[in-house]
Request: fold
Amino acid sequence: MAGPSGAAQWASESLALAELGAYHAYARRWVFLLVVSLLSCSNATLWLSFAPVADTVAQRFGLSTNQVNWLSLVYFIVSIPSGLVAIWVLDSVGLRWATILCAWLNFIGSGLRAVPCMPVSVKDPFAFLMGGQSLCALAQTLVIFSPAKLAALWFPEHQRATANMIGTMANPLGVLVANVLSPALVKKEGDIPIMLGIYMIPAGLACLLATSCLWESEPPTPPSAGAAQSTSEKFLDGLKLLLRNKAYVILAVCFGGGIGIFSSFSVLLQQVLCVEGYSNEFAGLCGALFIVFGILGALGLGLYVDRTRHFTEAVKVGFCLTSLVCVAFALVSQLRGQTIALAAICSLFGLFGFSVAPVAMELAVECSFPVGEGAAAGLVFILGQVEGALIMLLLTALTVRRAKPGFSACQGDQNSLDWEVSMLLLAGLCTLFSCCLVLFFHPSYRRLQAEASTGPCGRDRAALWQTLPEAPPRHPGGPDRSEDAGSPAAAHS
Reply:
């Protein structure tokens, strides 16, 4: 474990490198980002490909609605134990091999899902569907954790939040594709084999690019002071430091809850809306608006925080606005004929909620430095999967049967479910996480402080220090008396 003396040595070496002009950004970083983004997008389409057409899938393979839900829920369950392994692979084995392994798992899983639709005798199609989804779920943990580490290792500090945003938003882009493409492709049971075959194409392309185009896990020369010592803590030591970091734990629990809420919303959206007479195509449109506006918001917010470093303010404001929209969805989704209102609400839900995801991941790395980026981002995601699984199970358990189906547009056994209590609970949880984040989350930006303390090429480091959010006071002639004793910045000063 790196102590104060180790952190001081790191700061001294980083200062020497900066003064020699030894930091360099390579053009091939964009190729790596493209591969990771394509892989993340493909994995998300495989995760949610069944949810927008859950009723048709259930009829095609003779499954219940709960079984179809488990094809999405398995992502939550599998990723919880495999997430710790993925953190170790990223921070110990390396980003390149983690990406290649992820690509092959994703491609093999997409092929296994298509076996029940091939001209062979299959007694239990659910086993093949679940097996393929499980392999894709293993791949998910590797690719979801990658953007923060890729941004830290390959991109200069003024591009990190933007690169993290692109890599992170590729996953909801895949959710968008699934929400739009699945209902468009599947009009009847016989269309499902076509859908499964089409989703194999991007998985195969991502596998080919990852295997042939990625040559190294990190560049020969680091692009920034933070990248020069990206994974200074050993795996278990890093996890211990994270669990002792109050600010990080609060962010992980609250933002992990946000991940769980958005995942449950994406999976259950079609089932919630069809009960009130809304078609699968409209549910897919709402899911698409949710993602499109989330990506647009993330793009703008990523550029904003790259310039201002207002990570905390952006996340807190985004969470509060998301809570208000979630309450609106819980109420309006139980009414018939509110297509315009629902479309607007889903758009705002994505704009305020999804847009903060890459900023929150970057903030997790900032407040946990010098722990490795894979561990910092990965533990947040694991908690999100745990909370997501619990939330989704709770929401489905709270549904009750209506005495009269009413105007349901659902097929199969989901046409008489009442989601009112479940949606109100979802809004309540979102509000609870937002309140906890606003009231108790007060981080220090450890990585930015460390990089400012090294200073590039003779700049006045004291002036830079004062511009950083949450910067501890400096006392001439004496040690820093910051809250984060033992941080790299404190040790260097």
Residues 65-93 form the longest helix (29 residues).
